[in-house]
Write a structure and sequence with these properties.
18% helix; 33 strands; 6-stranded antiparallel barrel; 517 residues; alpha+beta
Length: 517
């Protein structure tokens, strides 16, 4: 890791450099407990007094660090502005941007010719990259990339990003943008950097995830059509890929699972969180790392999440969140919050410029209430109009809203506040639960994280572990234990055949007595 002495950042627009401050860079591949099958854009936020128009601007971001004698800048990548604001008094602009993964957020339209029966997943990736203006990393090999696809398997409303997610799922990886190139990865190939205790303030060392030994490809709502590969271990640690568009038949699932199983078998890592650490912003997600604890113990894991801050780099964070879901379900429907503001990115191939265009389409919702002697009838009309057409209705809508402004504002603010409270409560309860109880497929781990003594409950047995070594277990009506110590009496037998008691006498002798009751 680099030594945090000096940090400096700037952006490049049309060949000119502009300094930026208060930088926050977030890199993430974990989405609600999943790592496999995600495609999350890096987000960047900063302040600047640059006198340029940031509306839909595309720029390059460089981060610099080092000492007075040794200093270097690293190009992090190309970003696209999605939002900005300006302080009228100071002229400081606050800018939010995403990396070029954003270019895949356009409707999926394919021109591939499936008639010859030789279109592969690799061909689908190449078309996605070409149409969205993003290059695939040179030399990239993808698990199941040579799999032959019979036709376009995606819904009419799917985005290119949904296709990228489906490819990441069926290849056992996550998608990210690295140096402006699309990369499908799970674990990186770079030499693992060593992070010792002088490079961070706090280490939350959680637990090791269970190594995957069972892979399932199937349908989430249909039983009996799943294809499974396993090593037949008593304790199965499952990863299930459900509803993937490329696994559209039993035959195709059988073709896909072998390479996927080979890729994911044995995948595990230590879950951790480094707080207030010195972080190199150029480290790709999936990079292996070695963390040295304050006690000198080595933890081997990966970088799956990073929050980089500059110029206060010591406030950065790095982590590998624990996998909490054993099933990865394909879904192309946009999240509810994205539907509220649908923005498309259009690519101008002539000059390679990108512009964000909010659809010139607004929803017109009206209602009628008819009151009769025996019922109240509510009718909701839903239609669409262009922006120009909506302008003619502007005054009418503004008048209606003004009459009920306070009530509407109160209801919306109440809903938002309630949603925040519920989300915070769920997060706190989830964190508390995982502190003492962890779920992995059909396996339950009991005991506080970090304790030397834990219990594992599976479908076959109840195991007791001390320092990660099994010392006893109960299975098939029998109990097995490595060492046992009986204080006074050991009884063997039953009510039908009688009992034998091994008894320790007061003088230290051991006697055997038989009794019938």
């Amino acid at each position: 890791m680099f030594s945090h002495i000096i940090q400096d950042d700037y952006i490049v627009v049309n060949g000119s450099e502009y300094p930026i401050i208060n930088v926050s860079l977030i890199k993430e591949c974990s989405d609600e407990g999943n790592i496999i099958g995600t495609s999350i854009a890096k987000s960047l936020k900063f302040d600047t007094d640059a006198d340029i128009d940031f509306e839909n601007l595309e720029f390059e971001y460089f981060s610099g660090f080092g000492s007075l004698t040794e200093y270097e800048y690293i190009r992090i990548g190309t970003f696209i502005v999605v939002d900005f604001s300006e302080d009228e008094q100071t002229g400081i602009k606050t800018v939010s941007a995403l990396d070029t993964m954003l270019r895949f957020n356009i409707p999926y339209v394919s021109e591939l010719n499936y008639a010859d029966g030789d279109i592969t997943i690799n061909d689908v990736i190449d078309e996605c990259c070409e149409k969205c203006g993003v290059s695939l990393k040179d030399g990239q090999t993808i698990t199941n990339g040579s799999f032959v696809v019979d036709g376009n398997q995606f819904e009419e409303d799917a985005l290119f990003r949904n296709v990228i997610q489906a490819i990441a799922q069926i290849s056992g990886s996550f998608a990210q943008i690295e140096n402006d190139e699309l990369v499908f990865s799970l674990t990186g190939t770079l030499n693992a950097p060593v992070i010792d205790s002088t490079n961070y303030e706090k280490l939350n060392w959680k637990r090791s995830t269970w190594p995957i030994n069972t892979v399932v490809i199937g349908k989430s709502q249909i039983e009996g059509e799943n294809v499974t590969l396993t090593d037949n271990s008593i304790e199965q640690h499952i990863i299930a890929i459900n509803d993937n568009p490329f696994a559209y038949s039993q035959e195709k699932r059988e073709e896909l699972i072998e390479a996927l199983y080979e890729k994911l078998y044995g995948f595990e890592y230590v879950s951790y969180e480094l707080i207030n650490c010195v972080t190199n912003p150029a480290i790709p997600l999936g990079t292996p790392i070695v963390i040295i604890t304050p006690e000198g113990e080595s933890i081997y894991s990966y970088v799956f999440s990073m929050e980089y801050s500059s110029p206060e780099g010591c406030s950065s964070a790095m982590s590998a969140p624990s996998i909490t879901r054993s099933a990865v379900n394909y879904q192309f429907i946009a999240p509810e919050r994205e539907i509220l503001r649908r923005t498309e990115v259009l690519i101008d191939k002539a000059n390679s410029q990108i512009s964000a265009v909010v659809e010139d389409l607004q929803q017109n919702v009206s209602s009628e209430i008819e009151v009769t002697t025996d019922r109240i009838l509510s009718i909701v009309h839903e239609g669409y109009a262009t922006n120009a057409e909506m302008e003619d209705l502007g005054n009418m809508y503004e008048t209606a809203i003004s009459h009920f402004n306070n009530q509407i504002e109160f209801k919306f603010s109440t809903l938002i506040e309630n949603e925040r409270i519920i989300e915070d409560t769920i997060a706190e309860n989830q964190e508390l639960l995982e502190e003492y109880i962890r779920f992995q497929g059909a396996l339950i781990e009991l005991g506080r994280v970090g304790n030397s003594f834990t219990a594992l409950l599976s479908n076959e047995k109840l195991s007791f572990l001390q320092n990660n070594t099994e010392i006893a277990y109960i299975s098939n009506n029998k109990m097995y234990i490595t060492d046992a110590e009986i204080k006074n009496v050991l009884t063997i037998g039953n009510s039908n055949k009688g009992y034998y008691d091994w008894v320790v006498k007061s003088n230290g002798n051991l006697s055997l007595k038989r009794r019938t009751t």
